[in-house]
Amino acid sequence: MTDTPPDARAAAARQFALASLGLDDARFAPASADASFRRYFRLEAQGQSWVVMDAPPEREDCRPFIQVAQLMLDAGLNAPRILGQDLEQGYLLLSDLGRQTFLHVITEDNADALFADAIAALVQWQAASREGVLPPYDAALLERELALFPDWYVARHLGRALSPEQQDWWRQSCQVLVDAALAQSRVYVHRDYMPRNLMVSTPSPGVLDFQDAVHGPISYDVVSLFKDAFRSWPEARVEAWRRQYWQAARAAGLPVPAELTAFERDFDLMGLQRHLKVLGIFARINYRDGKPHYLADTPRFIAYVRPVAARYPELAPLLKLFDALGLEA
User: Fold this and answer.
1) Which of 104, 139, 312, 326 is most buried (most C-beta within 10 Å)?
2) How far apart are CA 72 and CA 212, in angstroms?
3) How does DSSP assign 64-103, residue by residue?
4) 104-116: per-residue pLDDT in tens?
């Protein structure tokens, strides 16, 4: 029944899990990896399964994961339960939420049902928000994230240096996006609430990859859900889902704008901040971390950015920058 772990950390993760569960042996195999330095393994024995997180402590801190998992459970969401921990070594033993993500199964036909579950869970998560619990999604963090685009996508991936005029266009654009984000009402923000991190589970969805959660703009997770990194949807469907979220949020007493058009603007500008950040992150993952497959999805984000920037006169500088860099949808 024993599988040979692929490396020393994996072997140690297996031993940690077996000891935590009081087992002598179990099937142990990779479950998934993500864009960070974390890895996940699945342990199976006696008709049950568990997930082991391997988070090298010099690279990752497990404590935010533990904190946010408890916040989600307290809010009534289906998040992993922490069954064992070794923070010094960087291992967590988690309940298993299943093998299929929404991204694995979502189709044109079932998207409405899956997103209805995701919207309901998101509203529930946001309704549990409290001040001072999670780090603030403040101007400094928003600006650091935006800087990933010129630093990694433009300089490293495109091999371009921005001219003084282009730098000015970029500064103007960043100011618009940061100001718009800071003007929004603030709630708990998962920060990567998308089909890849939502599990087909009961209750639906199971929620993963929440360790970077912050307290910030209410539209952020809505954009993550419908303007996905790995699958694009027709604008009419995005508009319908966005309206569905806004109506549910209003019904729950969440602080969304009273007018849908105001929320649409928040959604659009928050989305631009996220899309620009992700372009930088995907380039960084390639050049720093040696994970090239994320770059294949960067055209999707260029296609997200251009039509939105074109709708807002204050973002004409961003469109000029994209034109100058040859970034076409």
Assistant:
1) 312
2) 13
3) HHHHHHHHHHHTT-B---EEEEETTTTEEEEE---S-BHH
4) 999 999 999 999 9
Task: Name the DSSP letter for residue 294.
Answer: G
User: Can you give the pTM of this predicted structure?
Assistant: 0.95
Go through the domains of the chain in sequence order and give each one's CATH number: 8-95 (3.30.200.20), 102-325 (3.90.1200.10)
Q: How many residues does the chain have?
A: 329
Per-residue three-class SS string for 224-264: HHHCCCCCCCCHHHHHHHHHHHHHHHHHCCCCCCCCHHHHH
Q: Residue 259 has which token pair?
A: 């007018």
d(CA 230, CA 198): 13
CB–CB of 148/294 below 8 Å?
no
- For residue 139, pLDDT beyond 80: yes
Residue that is written with structure tokens 């533990």 in the block: 66
In a 10 Å sphere around its CB, with 0-12 CB exposed, 13-18 middle and 19+ buried, how is residue 296 labelled? Answer: exposed
Q: How far is Cα 114 from Cα 106, in angstroms, rounded to an integer? A: 7
**Dist CA 305 CA 170 (whole Å):** 14
Are the beta carbons of 282 and 289 closer than 8 angstroms?
no
How far apart, in whole angstroms, are the C-alpha atoms of residue 256 and residue 249?
Answer: 7
List strands edge to edge, sheet with 48-54: 27-33, 39-45, 48-54, 91-95, 82-86
Query: HSE (CB half, 13 Å, CA atoms) of 317?
Result: 15
3-state helix, strand, coil in the chain (%, to 5): 55, 15, 35
Taking only the tens place, the pLDDT of each residue in 181-224 is 999 999 999 999 999 999 999 999 999 999 999 999 999 999 99
